[in-house]
Structures
1.
Amino acid sequence: MTLLNVASLLGKSVGDAEKICANFGYHIRITKQDGLAFVVTCDLRTNRVNVSVSNGFIDSASIG
C-alpha cells in the first residue's frame, strides 16, 4: 500500500476524498459532520482515514 498524504484531502468533497483514498487502498470513516460527533470504535486500522466534514468538505483527516 502506498502512503497517502492525508493533508491532501483537506478541502475536498467527501466523494472526491473517497476516490483518492480508494486509489491508495484506504477507506474513509466520517467521525464528525457539521459539528455532530459520531460514536466510533477505538480500534486502529492503518488503512482507514478518519475525517471531519463541514458543509460537505473535509476539514480534518487522520489515519486510524
2.
Amino acid sequence: MRFKHHKEKVERFERTIAKLDEEEDSETLIEDYMLASSHLVNATMHALGTLREDKDIKHNNIFGFVKKENGLKEFSEEVADLVQQIEQLRPSYVYGKGKNGDTVKKAKESFIKIKKICNTLLQNEGKPGNSI
C-alpha cells in the first residue's frame, strides 16, 4: 500500500476514535489504536525507503520486523516496544471480558508516541509534506 493510502487509513481511524467513548467502546478503541499504529509504521517505512511500497507488515509482525530490519532507524526499538505494548493489551480486552478506560488510555498514549516519532523521522528525512 502506498504512503498516501496508509495516511488516509490513519486519518479514518482517528476520526472514528474521536467519536467513541473510552469506557463504552474500549475494545474498538484498542483495535483502532493498534491498526492506526500499524498504518503509521508502514507509511513511515515506505517514506524512509526501509520497506518497499508493494509490501506491508501486519500489526502482529511489526515488533519483530522493525527491530530486526531497523525499519525506523534510531527509533526502531522504541516504536517496536510501543506497538508491542498495544498488542499486549488486546487479548484480555478485545477477546476477553476486560473493560477498562485506563487500558484505552495506555493504548492512546502509545499511539500518540508512535505518531510523534513517525512524524519526527519524516521531518528529519526532509519529508515534512509527508507528515501523518
